[in-house]
Amino acid sequence: MPAVSGFFAPVVWTGASRAALAIPASVIATTLLPIAYFTFLLLMNSKSACALGDQRPKGGWRVISNLLMIGATAAATMASVWVFINKGTPGQWGLAGLGLLFLVGIVSFIRKRGTA
Predict the structure, then answer these.
(1) Which of 115, 28, 34, 25 is nearest to 70 (CA)?
(2) What is the distance between the alpha carbons of residues 74 and 95, in angstroms, rounded to a whole number?
(3) What is the pLDDT along the chain (116 residues), one digit of tens a residue?
(4) How far apart are CA 77 and CA 105, in angstroms?
């Protein structure tokens, strides 16, 4: 669905509405980026995940890749929080939702950690 709407966007959205779409699109992308980065971080370090399994980084490369991923995740999270804070009351609701998603993800990861 996003690909279809993106493909037809130049036809559907004309004039000033094109520029107006850039702001909501950037806000949505900025707020979802930390979720993706955090998920990748968990997948890179999960032995039982189907993504990497036994091919996950080891030794010094694992430490370096984790430090880089943690830095990227922290930067994306700070940007997301900054966007939410600057959006007033709706942003506070969004920030609460992001925190709730983070908690659900952590609890789910811990619960499924022992099962494979």
Answers:
(1) 34
(2) 15
(3) 667 766 777 777 777 777 777 777 777 888 888 888 988 888 887 777 667 767 778 889 989 999 999 999 999 989 888 888 888 888 888 888 888 888 887 888 788 776 65
(4) 15
Q: Which residues contact 112 (CB under 8 A, 6 or more apart)?
A: none
Q: Are 98 and 78 in contact (CB under 8 A)?
A: no
Nearest to 96 by CA among 107, 110, 76, 80: 80
What's the token pair of residue 37? Answer: 């980065």
Residue bearing tokens 């779409």: 21
